[in-house]
Amino acid sequence: MPKLSRRHKENVEKTKNKIYSNLDQAIEVLQETASAKFVESVELHANLNIDPKYADQQLRTTVTLPHGVGKQVKIAVLTNDENFDEATNAGADIVGNEELIENITQGNIDFDLLIATPNMMPKLAKLGRVLGPKGLMPSPKSGTVSSTLTATLTDFKKGKFEYKADKTGIVHATFGKVDFTSTQLVENLQAFYDSIEKNRPSGVKGKYFKSLSICSTMGPSIKLDFESFAA
């Protein structure tokens, strides 16, 4: 069993058996306990009262946080030739069609997100085995199949991203960096919570949230009281 550092032990003690009912205080503690030598990401872990094996209890959607997540996303666009200029002007890092499909087939995936226009989807079907496991397969539900490239690229460049509950019903996602201001982190966290609440699956009966916690990459878990979020 790995030996815990004194710093980590002290951080754990600060948050042990505590549930924070004030988001400002929770974020303050999160930033205090993020003492790694690199800029840590901050994460939300929401345990939901859902069973994703049922279609009406699945959660998969997108959100655009007010201040982004502190990461530049490299976007590839798969479309026909006449849309190349529009995609490039809207901020796409890679634009292509047949050549891009061939590169993906060979395992050359030099992007974080793939957007496709609807007419290209039949050609992408054969790439499901390559893109699927990496979470890169475009889909209308995630907003990555679109005929309005400029608007779609603008949204994703601003920080729009997809999140979903895993097979145990937990959402794990980043909502910023520890070097954001406390106000930025609070506003991002509130927006993320609101998105999860707004997209409550129709099959949920009774209580939706089981537990909520936040942490930095190397920091301890900080539990949140549901009352800490404004109605």
Q: How would you characterize this protein structure?
A:
It is a single chain. This protein has 231 residues and is an alpha/beta fold. The strands form 3 sheets. It has a 5-stranded mixed sheet, covered by helices on one side. A 3-stranded parallel sheet has the order 5-4-6, sandwiched between helices. Helix 2 crosses helix 8. The radius of gyration is 20 Å and the shape is globular. The termini are far apart.
Short description:
Belongs to the universal ribosomal protein uL1 family. With 231 residues, this protein is an alpha/beta fold.
List the helices and strands and how they pair.
Elements: H1 6-15, E1 19-20, H2 23-32, E2 41-48, E3 60-63, E4 75-78, H3 84-89, E5 94-96, H4 98-105, E6 113-116, H5 121-124, H6 128-131, H7 149-157, E7 161-164, E8 170-177, H8 182-198, E9 209-216, E10 222-224
